[in-house]
Each structure stands twice: as structure tokens, then as C-alpha cells.
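Sharing a chain and its predicted structure for anyone who wants a worked example. Both blocks are below, sequence first, C-alpha cells second.
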Amino acid sequence: MNVYKANIENGIVTNIIITADNYEPETNGFWVNFTRESGNINIGYTYALEEGFRPPKPYNSWIWNETGKYWEAPISIPDEENIYEWDEDNVSWKLTYIKYAQ
């Protein structure tokens, strides 16, 4: 049976391999087994024993949502009708496209 393994160095995922269940790679850091059901784990994610895997923080101002397990902006997007882009310099949403009603 194949197993997914993530190499963790200083709390960061540096490598991911798929290997036989009993294979233990010999490299720096330590290896953590995970399943695809754990989510889409990638290089650059952080890992902590008590928190598990977490994707990189997209912006300094964003906050980790413990319930949903995702990063979110410190303010809600103004509406779902238009398209916005996050403006980190002003810590706000910037309107990039207005959808017109049909």
C-alpha cells in the first residue's frame, strides 16, 4: 500500500513523496504520514503537531479561521456580485470588475 509522506524542516513542508508503507527516508527534518483525505498538502505548507498542516498565509493581515481551517481577510468582501482583489497596503478589498445585471 502506498503512503504519502511530507518532510518537515523547521515547521515547513520541504518535500512530499509517495512510498511503500514501511519505507523511512533518511534526510534532514522528520517525516509525517498523511492521506489525500487530509486535504491538498503542498510544499511550503506549515506543520505543527497540535494544528496539523496549514497552507501559507496569503497576506500578513489575514487571520486563520480555526473552524473552517482556512485563511480569511480581516474584513468581509463587500458583495458577491462583483469581483474584488485584496489590497494589502490598504487592508481592504479593491473592486476590479463590476458585473452588470442582465
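Comments welcome. The mean pLDDT is 90.
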